Batch of 2 targets.
Target 1
Amino acid sequence: MTPLRRRLLFGLPLAVVAAGGGGFYTILRRMQNNQYDPHALPSPLIGHRPPAFNLPGLDGMQGFTNTDIAAPPRPMLVNWFASWCVPCLQEAPIIAQLARLGLPIWGIAYQDTAPAIATFLAQNGNPYTRLASDASGLTAINWGVYGVPETYFIDKTGIVRSRWAGALTLDLVANELNPLLERYS
Amino acid sequence: MKRLLLSLLLLPALAFAQMVTRDGVTLTAQQEQRAEAIGDQLRCLVCQNESIEASGASLAGQLRVIIRQHVIAGDSDRDIMKFMVQRYGIFVLLKPPFMPLTWLLYAMPFLALALGGLIAWWSRRNRIAAPAPLTAADEARLDELLR
């Protein structure tokens, strides 16, 4: 066996292990920094308009249909949430902050009741321009929503450009939402 | 006549025996079988390693209802799969379809086989030739040395 082959024979497995370790380290670090979620799925709705729906209002607010968000004057968010969902409670301050900064946010309450939503909004503030109720959860299925909260970014032509499954974080706002706003405003 | 009337009266009961109810939807045993076969091929998006048929998540329950409604309406398996993929993407299919994104996945066994074959061929080619058999003189010299 030549020295080169010997070195290759010993070095190759070592290199494979090192590359694997590096890969796993990157995955774990990105997961820790909320930059990567192995359970997140790409939404088939991205690049399309939301499917037809017509949802009633909630808590004295106006509901909305798909045509109401077909051509918004400014980019907007549609936020699916529920009073019974813990991550929704976590993201509430961030949603409220975005609304204060002037971003139109329309809410859809998923499988919820009017009294529970009223309590939730009384405690966390109401950041929503409009608030619809999807009590059956069937519109959610048509959107491909598989849990709450989910937030959809809709541009001025009514096309969905991004979807975040799970609570919005400051990192996501800085790294993903702000660039989208710059691009589509 | 009486017998005929009796059997006519029993007919709906017979049909009823063939009906099953799952997640609040009543359908025939055959329809239920079809619905289960479809649900077994779909991933529950809440508990991502379970099928829609096996999962206890409420979303999976709703999707089971939708599948059964489509089966009762007479939609084909393909139509129902398309309904799900349109909403949740190909991730919803437990068996990934053969498409550009998954070509590498399906080609992997053949690539591994080809790589193994290449290594086998390469190491065979580089095998050091066996030394020539000893001549009579070599044998004599060896005996002398080993004595």
Target 2
Amino acid sequence: MNNWYKKLKKYQEIIRISNNEMFASPGNFIGRIVIFCLRISLFGIIYPYVFKSSNLTSINGISVIQIVWSLALVQIIYQFSRKTYQDIRDEIMSGQIETKLNKPYSFLNFVFVDAMGKMPIQAIIYAVTIVLLLGTVFGIPHFTFVQIIGLIILFILGVILFTLNMILLAICAFWMENPDPVYWIIGKLSWFVNGTFIPLAILPASFRTIATYFPFSAPFFLGRIFEISTLTGISQLIIIQLIWIVVFAFIIKYLYRLGIKKVSINGG
Amino acid sequence: MKEFKNQIRWLLELIKLNIKSNLEYRTSFWMQVVGMAINNCAFLVVWYLFFQIFHSVNGWKYQDMIGLNGFVSAVFGLCFFVAYGMRRISKYITFGQLDAYLVLPKSPLIQILFAESYVSALGDLLFGIISLVIYCFIAHLSLGTIILLPILFILACCTFTGFNIVGEAIAFWIPNSNELTDALFEFMLGPSLYPNSAFTGAIRIIFTFIIPAIVVGGMPVNILLKMNPWQIILMICLSIFWLLLAKFIFDQGLKRYESGNLTGAH
């Protein structure tokens, strides 16, 4: 019991440090919030404009307000674990990872906890930003109780899954000189089916089917909250996310074990 | 004149050296170039889907988006492939690494600009050129317009470079501002890839004069389509303005620079 407590305390310390780090440079942090607002604002400019010029009030039952909110919700997921991929990739590519292997913690757990530790505070900040920005300009769409609960669960699981996605792509660096091309291609493939630029609700049904089962689009399910709003539908999305979390965790663990065998210690 | 020729020869040597050092990891080099080109194709697919739903945005059609994405990618690609150092300025300032450039006989700003090249930007450049060639055909551009294209391209590159230097030089005044400069960069790049016909009123003014997103993409495509001489003059003025501003801000900032006592050969 005491041993477990010590282990947890170690990771608790990592969370504390990562949170402090987040606010170490207020300019940087504010810069990220500003760019987030800009992205959402661009959607807020484009979509109402094209709806108005096309004389549309809704597409497939989804209104322009819901579209802008849906795109903003997808953008939230991108704000988390942004650095996880870069950090792991750089550690592996530079060979610095060798210095982490003899430390009394698991490197994988460290990067995961480091990313997750920032989640609660960041989540609150981004949620407030979205509500203030979109709520003031467009208004807040109607959410049922089921949708609100579903949104929270899909968000938490989405961030976990997105972090695992990033870790998996980054550990490709064990086998490749530079995993960036894989990262870009997977990232952009996801665009078509995760609602980054066009909400799935207004795309043809085939895109929605692919989106439901494509592992790299699963982190962004919260953007589908207006399209799938029933308890059964949301539960199905949650179960899919949980399955992918387990699958990704196993694959990462397995590949990492194989990968660290390839690390050559040069000394110095 | 001789001095100018020497400068150009020296810059070409620097670019050649950067390319050679990147080619050392050949597989990685080509994977990054091809990967980035495929990555950019995604934008075209997204816009294709968008225009399948909405057909046009204030007169802009899908073919114009090919031109816009091609133009912005080519500008981004050329600037970063030959002069990626512009995105390193804030890092050099923060870590006190400018010393190595200050002691050399050439202009520190020019040296920094051409000190690094970004491999995957070659993929952007290739994608941009192919997209622009396709655009010239599908938009039935006249020969006169096609001749104007390289001139607009150079003007857009000047504005892009100038804005980036100004954004990076902020680090002279705000320490540890890497993410802020990244945000500023995205502030320009993001809107430049959207159909600028949707930006009207105050937003259009901001994205033209304060954050020149429209100048690096939308305005040149508009000129190709409508041949508006006023827009050409505006582009020339803005590119000169941004280059001069960049030089001025960098020189002013340099007076505040504190050495990190890090010297090394570059």
